[in-house]
Amino acid sequence: MRTLVHLSDLHFGRVDQALLAPLQTLVTRLAPDVLVVSGDLTQRARSAEFIAARAFLDTLPGPQIVVPGNHDIPLYDVAGRFFAPLRKYQRHVTLDLAPEYVDEEIALLGVNTARSLTFKDGRINRQQIEQIQRRFAQLAPEVVRIVVSHHPFDLPAGADENSLVLRAPQAMQAFAASGVDLLLAGHMHASHSGDSSQRYSLGGYAALVVQAGTATSTRGRGEANSFNVIRIDASHIQVERYAWVAATAAFESAGHAGFRRSGALWAAVAAL
């Protein structure tokens, strides 16, 4: 079994400082096999914000899979936005815009969905889809395949459809062919776990879709700051949500969701 800690939407520049030390302590205690950060490390892609985000990441366990979000592209620096959109991200966080972690049980591939030409929407291009297909094709069939992005490939019922990553249907067809098991994302500042079968009819294929809320931002959009702990084996996945409780000044377990794989279909079961 492998354990992931899934953080998202840190938004340094709009961080609740009181959450940082408790979050660092708990994540370290959880001792994940991989730490995932699914974008929006900063609020306005300023150097000082990236430096603060990098310093915080350095206090957390590794290995780490980190991808950028739309807030990690400058908004007001027009030249930077269009000519070097992720220059500061790559200088301070990582040069790698397609990070990966692979072992004998799990494979995580990160994909950059942030783009200069839109303020908040994301997209995936054909080359990125093909790169994911090629990499997963090299792996043994029993390896659990995981894609990490900032913008989601599926949404909970009632969510704003504009939050869906552009070209999601084409990507999902490729993910079905590649046997992708788990899609991790953020962007919406709302926690969610479910399967992709309601949106996509792909011949008995359904991926598990997990979104993390914002771990540290003051922009909670009505949900407490939170993150996910995901425990994975070849046929079972458990998603545990941790939420900030002001009364105890701590992140506490706030519920579990369990999923089981049958062939190419992931579906909810009682929590494991």
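Above is the first protein from milestone M3; the second protein from the same milestone is given next.
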Amino acid sequence: MPTPQLSVQLYSTRHALELDEDGTFARLAALGLRNVEVYGFVHRAAELAEALGRHGLTARTGHANLLSPENGHGDPVPSLEETFAAAGVLGLQTVFDPFVPAARWADGTEIARTAALLNAAAERGAAHGLTVGYHNHSQEFVHTVDGVNAFDHFADRLDPSVALEIDLYWASAGGNDAVALLRRLGSRVRALHIKDGAIIDDPFTSGAPFDPADTRQVAAGRGEVPLDAALDAAPDAEFAILEFDHYDGDIFEGIEAGIAYLSGKGIV
């Protein structure tokens, strides 16, 4: 069984990056990290690649909007060609769409349309030597279509080439069984977001603004998410990626604790 590579989603350190990008990368490298997962990279790929390289960091996975015409703030998103070209500059292997709004998971026809868009993006990504995939939150598991939850309905309509990155915290929200999900998906799970905390209800279908502070996230291994069992249930995952939507404390201490947890599982 291959051992996944340790990584961290840079969104976890977004506030530190805004204050001191170079210093943030230096601190991550000093913690022993060699891989990161990027976000918001399309318009600054060369600059970001250079900054990461100075600190011995590489990015093999990244998040970019592939399935929506806007980024959630009313701004248009880059084209697929722009996104894939930027991914090539950074040396990414896989680009994951990180979020499809809750309203698009309530109807089977709309779910099928989203799957078709992702399949088409995967075909275009392959022409750039890239794998394309999807990263879940919790809104995908709220509704049932044809007797299964919306995420399973979606996954059943994806081309086998499409990769899945399962966020274990959000897949567990609302009491969902993330371990059973991983077993159903099998080798299609190419990456895991290692994230822990209290098991909360899905916040994305309520219509209220999402406040990351409400997630009550803690360092990996210290919350209610079944991380040990999930890692065992995803033997084909290539990356174990630490992430915090919010951390009530020093984010670097939280990441360091997560590294220690994963190192104890042989993931480095």
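Note on the second protein: The CA atoms of residues 169 and 220 lie 10 Å apart.
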